[in-house]
Amino acid sequence: MSGLKFLFRADQTNVGDWWCPPFRYFPFKPASISDLIDKSLEINEKDILILGGGGIGSPFFEPHLERIKVSGAKVIVWGAGVDTVSNKSDGKLLPRGEYDLCGDFFDKFDEVGIRVFEGNENFRYVPCASCMNNLFFKYREVKPINKIGIYFHKRVPLKIQGIPSADNNGDNLEEKLRFLSSFEYVITNTYHGVYWATLLERKVIVLPFKSGLFSFKHKPIYCYDGNVSDDLFHQAKTYSGALEDSRKLNLEYYKYLTSKYDLV
């Protein structure tokens, strides 16, 4: 086995985390695959680590990132998210305002490609690698059969009476894309709810409980008070070509990394 190691939050009950790592979409030489929070994982200075994606730039993951920083290994961050502020415990919405969208979680790593677009001045913008799944082309072509659907984080319920809803629990990506593609408008409070619905060219309204929901290149519409009014639906729009743009950025990152490091 080579010294190449992939580390991500290997949570099969969170579909976004499960489908975000780049090893699912790009060819690499034989490598080990581990959960970022596995304390038994051995890391040394000869390793090359690829971290991400998923929202691993947060206080929860900081001790695990610090352990990696002192290991001496080469570290590549790929499509990782950042949440400097989060109300996951109570789901309280964040007010309109300015937030630190990058933090310092990935400082001193060798290559940093993060899914943060807004406010990203020091790192490379690399959206989540899940866009490389070809299912997006299939479900982007589906004609919506309903007007409004809700897609929420399994730990932060979001339900409105009379509106179909689903959460991010599980590992069945096609099931989630089938649901999202069924609607013209998607109301959501999850990163991948926004990202995937945007790639499918749906109109997105977000109820933000964490700062990472403000970091998109293709901006959704934000609801700060929990009242999803008609005006918000009028403001929401689709982004043609968001899928192709996101895939292009991931392909460019892959080519850059494989030309510089022993990865293939």
Overview of the molecule:
With about 260 residues, the protein is of the alpha/beta class. The protein folds into two domains: about 140 residues; about 100 residues, no CATH class. It is built from seven helices and twelve strands. The strands form two sheets. Strands 1, 2, 3, 4, 5, 6 and 7 form a seven-stranded parallel β-sheet that branches. The chain has a five-stranded parallel β-sheet with strand order 9-8-10-11-12. β10, α5 and β11 form a beta-alpha-beta unit. The longest helix is centred in the last third of the chain and has 19 residues. The radius of gyration is 18 Å and the shape is globular. The mean pLDDT is about 95.
Compose a concise summary of this entry.
With 264 residues, the chain is α/β, with parallel strands linked by helices. It is built from 7 helices and 12 strands. It folds into 2 domains: 145 residues; 105 residues, no CATH class.
Secondary structure: elements and pairs:
Elements (H helix, E strand, L loop, with lengths): L3 E5 L6 H4 L13 E4 L12 E4 L2 E4 L4 H8 L4 E9 L28 E4 L9 E2 L9 H6 L5 E7 L12 E3 L5 H9 L1 E6 L2 H9 L3 E4 L14 E2 L7 H6 L6 H19 L4
Rg result: 18 Å
Number of domains: 2
Secondary structure class reads alpha/beta
Low-confidence stretches: none
Work out the number of β strands.
12
Tell me the major beta sheet: 7 strands, parallel
Cα distance spanning the termini: 13 Å
